[in-house]
Design brief:
This protein is about 80% helix and about 0% strand. The chain is mainly alpha-helical and about 130 residues long. It has a domain of about 45 residues.
Length: about 130
Amino acid sequence: MLALMRTVRETDPGCLILGRHGINESAGGGSDRRRKNIINSAIGRRGLFEDLLNKFKNNFYRLADDLQSDVQAAVRTHLDVIRNSLDILRSENAALESEQDPEFRGRVEAEVGRVKDGVRRIQAAVGA
């Protein structure tokens, strides 16, 4: 009941529950009837359940968006780990292949040197 009263109070700022003479401060003769009347009038308000439904929908959408963002971040992180692992395997395989074929490694080193020389000449011509 307290959760419902709290929800009613949050969804209906003009609700008697918030008033100075609300449920908790009702005492004396007929206080039980007054408390029940306050609760029934708040619950009987036409827009209360529509307001509650809208509030629940909005919270659900917010929670779903937050969950989707968290899942996407987790997937991105795991894919980065997998990609890094595959890169390590690829570089290790390249090292093994170069050890097995020294002639190929020599051709690659010669080509890399030629390209680096070309880049240096272009930088010198441009003045970089």
